[in-house]
Design brief:
2 copies of one chain form a homodimer. By secondary structure, chain A is of the alpha+beta class. Chain A folds into 2 domains: about 140 residues, Orthogonal Bundle (Arc Repressor Mutant, subunit A), CATH 1.10.10.10; about 80 residues, SH3 type barrels (Roll), CATH 2.30.30.90. Helices cover about 40% and strands about 15% of the residues of chain A. The longest helix of chain A has 25 residues. At the A-B interface, helix 4, helix 5 and helix 6 of A face helix 4, helix 5 and helix 6 of B. Bound molecules: manganese (II) ion (4 copies). One manganese (II) ion (MN) binds next to loops of chain B. The first copy, chain A, binds a DNA duplex (30 and 30 nucleotides) through helix 3.
DNA sequence: ATTATGATTTAGTGTATCCTAAACTATATA
DNA sequence: TATATAGTTTAGGATACACTAAATCATAAT
């Protein structure tokens, strides 16, 4: 029996599974064994076993050979974890001068050890931020989350002007590269051209007044929102 | 196999055992199975099992039916954990307005999840403090620790003037009570009298200009240092 | 020297989480 | 419709860490 920290407290693995499942569902994809396994870097049989346990605990509904859906309780926990993670990331960057590529790994561990009180105090010290350093929305204490409408950069037609909204937070090297291009959430740029066959995307950085070329895979991971054309 | 955070990383239980063993040894007591069991609130057979594992991993030397001694490696880890714990406690109090009775429980969990970088950044933000909120010394990054010479209040003769140096950090209710008396590390008072048969201790708080009476058990947990009599 | 007592270890379990290898299911394709 | 393939689950095993009950050891008191 593990010591209860807060109202919820389900162990490191369980909490990470619920987050992963939430993210898959949020992306519209069904949360299948294999996708969860890939997201968490765990073997598929292990995921099958954990799904059994999650299901027994009423955190997911499982349709064998299909995938899982979060129950209300499961979603509640997932959103609480997302809040913890993102508050922690923001705090580490703002108050402790962590670089934006280092915060994810640190938050991935702290999220399971921090009490609700700690998260609440950090949020307060930050002025209750609504987005984390990578542009992801931070759920409120009551579990509300705003999901800005965005498009992957690969789906923005040439000629359009966009604001970068979200960059994935997983890969430190990728984040350092993105930063080196002058890109981060909030930056405005024009899409100049797309090369076919999953080729690179050319963009024009408005503030920096310079062109950059991004590989297809990188562009796929950048979520943007379109800006109305100016007159 | 657990993911490696830093150079060291031995799992929550292992780290807590090493801290407990260090504290027992530091108090001069041999680190016996039962004392460890009592400190960690774990059954003696469980401790026996863990001692086997610690010994196999070269963290302690075990003399069956006698007790354990930390190896150099074990001591290194224990001091690193003590540093983490105490930096965290201090940070929570100074920067996040935690009360001094709440920091211990929080640090007890965070100490296993925080990276060396995080601890270093917190220490820096605090100006590399040398003592935690309960008066315990904070080991340096290289593992040095200063141990002020102190006496339990129960051993201070009547008539002597002392400064309170260390109060234990475990029991929140006790800490709140101590605080309500106007006591905390750094406070100066005179020992007025001791009642025999483990009776109460009467003290005179110099700054507050008031008397207080402390139970024997409480007095036993207050570490003081004597002040030279003034001329 | 013997025995009572308390401390310690051993034996046997249980839970959570991971793994690989093998079996099974769903489905797309021929 | 039969089968190949990809995805999933089952079977069997490992590790870390906790527990209770029983056996063993050390030692202090008779
Ligand atoms: Mn995590
Ligand atoms: Mn993030
Ligand atoms: Mn701890
Ligand atoms: Mn302390």
């Amino acid at each position: 029996m593990t010591a209860q920290i807060n109202s919820i407290d389900l162990g490191v693995s369980t909490e990470d599974y619920l987050k992963a499942i939430y993210k898959l569902e949020a992306h519209g994809q069904p949360a299948q064994t294999t996708s969860i396994a890939e997201a968490l870097q765990i073997s598929a049989p292990s995921v099958s076993g954990m799904i059994k346990r999650l299901s027994d605990n009423g955190l997911v509904e499982h349709q064998p050979y299909k995938g899982v859906h979060l129950t209300d309780e499961g979603r509640r926990v997932a959103l609480a974890m997302l809040r913890r993670h993102r508050i922690l990331e923001t705090y580490l960057m703002e108050k402790l001068k962590f670089s934006w590529d280092a915060v994810h790994a640190e938050a991935e561990r702290l999220e399971h050890a921090a009490s609700d009180l700690l998260i609440q105090r950090m949020a307060l010290a930050l002025g209750n931020p609504r987005f984390d350093p990578h542009g992801d929305p931070i759920p409120t204490e009551s579990g509300e989350i705003e999901t800005p409408l965005t498009v992957a950069l690969t789906d923005v037609p040439a000629g359009k002007r966009v604001v970068l909204v979200v960059v994935g937070d997983q890969d430190p090297a990728r984040l350092r590269f993105i930063e080196s291009l002058g890109l981060k959430p909030g930056v405005t740029f024009d899409v100049v051209s797309h090369q076919p066959f999953r080729g690179p995307v050319e963009i024009w950085l408005v503030a920096d007044r310079k062109n950059e070329v991004l590989g297809h895979e990188l562009a796929l991971s950048l979520q943007c929102s379109l800006i109305e054309e100016e007159a």
